[in-house]
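Quick one: structure tokens for this chain, please?
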Amino acid sequence: MTKTIAIAAGLIATLVIGIGLGLWWPGESNTSGAASSGERKILYWKAPMDPNYRRDEPGKSPMGMDLVPVYADESEGSDPALVSIDPSIISNLGVRSAPAESGALSRRINTVGYVGYDEETVHHVHTRVDGWIENLSVTASGDAVTEGQVLFELYSPTLVNAQEEYLAVLKSRDTTYHQASRDRLAALGLTADEIKRLDSERTVRQRIRIRAHADGVVAHLGVRHGMYVTPATEIMSIANLDRVWVQVDVFERQSAWVEAGQRVEVKLDYLPGKRWQGTVDYVYPELDPNSRTLKVRLRFDNSSTTLRPNMFASVTIFGTPTDTIVHVPREALIRGGTVDRVVLDMGNGRFRAQEVVPGIESGDRIEIRSGVAPGDRVVVSGQFLIDSESNIGSALTRLNNESRTSPDSTSSGDLADSDEEAPMDHSLHSEEHKP
């Protein structure tokens, strides 16, 4: 009997040990299998553009996008500014990135200007005596004139009397007054050729011919035939178009980049593809108080008269290059009220907003003084969407942390409970006092 009991106890012990080993061994096997497979644990699914929209299973967001998984290794201790986006969504959003480069950046200024006359070639036509305009050969502004062309004839009683006095002195052969009378004619505007004609012909002309001193076009015409003029009347202005000026405005922040002699390139809308090469002729000493811009004058040869006054021009001024700096495409920079930033492409669909300190801006590139290293990839398309989600994620993380660590959270909850219970007690007491 005792032997039978011992055998039964041994069988029961063996069975218990076998069951225990069976329960332990599969669990160990499953654990090792999961570890070896390397599967990541998914905590939840969220909308790509709205981190507040979360679900326990895959699906669609309110915007129609596929929900993206959030893994345990990403959520624990991860950077709240780090944004992970599915590769298919990156393609749909058209996200593009470009590397930050290191090197010299040309101080290139892109601005606009207007073609104008070269004021050094402009001369004004005035008379030195009162009189009347007759036989005006120029009828409108813009008319071309040539050197020596008769512009108009002037009838002036003062000039007629001066010629008669000069002829009277010649007849008297009074050498004392001859030179004085001759100087008076010259002072009144009579040319040396007219005085020689008086000496030879000894006849007075009622109308004096006024001629052009150089080739050009009439920039301004202030008289008409038969008008009475005085020495203060600006009869016309004549300018040469063989050379022209282009007046441009440069922003105040770029004013230190400009100096005389720098190379300039000009393009006109009416001749696409054609470029004119010139130089900076003069930098004006003061800024415009209204526009806060610096005026710069450019000079161009214009023998073909292709550049016409008042034409609109796109101007590029090539300044001296900078030292070696880090620069990125201009569209990568997101300007804020107090903080400027870029979105860094961390690879594998991960992005992060990075605060930067921008420097000079030249053409389509901008200097980054701190925050970005050479070789870092910055997002140049779709960065505003990524930056907005990064800011939302950071704000939510801050709010969650503040709510968890706030010392007044418990007391505020108790206060709310007491406020809710007070009206109930009051109603009970009121019912007890009812008759």
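DSSP finds eight helices and 23 strands in the chain.
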